[in-house]
Amino acid sequence: MVDSVYSPVVVDDIIDSSDLASAGSYTAVGTYPRTEMTALVGALSERVDTPAPDLLRAYGQHLFGRFHALYPGFFTNDPDVLDFLEGIEAVVHSEVLKLYPDAELPEIAATRMSPDVVELDYTSPRCLADLAEGLLRGALADFGSQAELTRLDLSDDGSHSRFVVSRRQP
Predict the structure, then answer these.
(1) Are 80 and 35 contained in the same domain?
(2) Which of 91, 90, 161, 102 has its CA nearest to residue 132?
(3) Which of 7, 66, 141, 159 has the highest count of CB atoms within 10 angstroms of its CB?
(4) Domain boundary at 50, 69, 86, which?
């Protein structure tokens, strides 16, 4: 995302300015310390003068689009975004773990509050609620949903948040 939105030069600059054990060399199947992502996002934030939470939300939206392009099978059974969101843990996360058994996924507890409302409790020691919000916003956009997303932080560190997705009535 940084390469396409900003430039390859910015990518090189933020990698060079961050102290990374991996030296900025990543694979799609690898698992890396959260500290590396934090360092890269912090360096990007300084470079482009954008708050880190905004960058994480933007990355989440971008990432949802990549997930849809790379794994279209995850999106064929749910014509409605609320149904899709309700099945993240049971369907999407279980399939991801089949592909990547070492993946460290957040816990997403979904509760259907009504036909038009889904509540999602996000819990993760990686503290990436901003990224989760971006993913949810990406899902709403991808599905073309007329829905509203609200967020309530239940921890100070981003490890636990509650998201409520409410379909707007015409």
Answers:
(1) no
(2) 161
(3) 159
(4) 50
Three-state secondary structure call for residue 34: helix
Statement to judge: residues 144 and 67 lie in one domain: yes
Per-residue pLDDT tens digits for 87-144: 888 878 887 788 788 888 899 999 999 999 999 999 999 899 999 999 999 999 988 8
Q: At what angle do helices 8-16 and 34-48 cross, to 10 degrees?
A: 120
Non-local CB neighbours of 55 within 8 Å, separated by 6+ positions:
41, 44, 45, 48
Contact in structure between 122 and 160 (CB atoms under 8 Å): yes
Closest of 39, 54, 55, 96 to residue 73, by C-alpha = 96
Structure token digits, residue 153: 């932080």
For residues 31 and 165, give the distance between their C-alpha atoms in angstroms, rounded to a whole number.
30
> Tokens representing 83?
């149904």
Same-domain check for residues 31 and 45: yes
Per DSSP, the three-state class of 130 is helix
- Quick one: 9 and 24 in the same domain? yes
Q: How many domains does the chain have?
A: 2
Its domain, for residue 148, covers 56-170
CA pair distance 9, 5, nearest whole angstrom: 11
